[in-house]
Design brief:
Elements lengths: L24 E2 L2 E2 L15 H13 L4 E4 L2 H12 L11 E5 L3 E11 L4 H20 L2 E13 L17
Parallel strand pairs: 5-6
Antiparallel strand pairs: 1-2, 3-5, 4-5
Amino acid sequence: MTAPQTSAEQPERDAAPATATGTPTIGGQRTATELSGARGKTTIADGVVEKIAGMAAREVPGVFALGGGFARTLGAVRDRVPGGRPNVTRGVKVEVGERQTALDLDIVVEYGVPITDVAQDVRENVIAAVERMTGLEVVEVNIAVNDVHLPDEESEEREEPAPRVS
């Protein structure tokens, strides 16, 4: 009976051509399979990719917030609790495999910006950040625009001073 092949021994079907050393690369960057070698294996948790994607999406002009209406409201309340921190993963869901990842983002855009342009900019920025920082190949980024923030609406993302306790 032979031992089952490890992921490093299995043939690469969807990776780019191998380098001179035989290690597959994607866009000249290290892949997750390259991170597993004779000295150990590196795994990347879903939460890590969620944080990277959340930060990258928020950097795009025209994005007001991430998350759906209820999640944003609940998150705004949670952020105001003393000691609470903003949740950068709100509105971000990921599935991480050994070499690939897929992401779903729920966003709110500013009124007046072209939604398709903002969605494309978010997609490109998230893909670039995740692939650069993790080495994983991003196979898809699905974006759901849940709301448009109007200029006269009060911002639930705006930080308000905490109530004084006497």
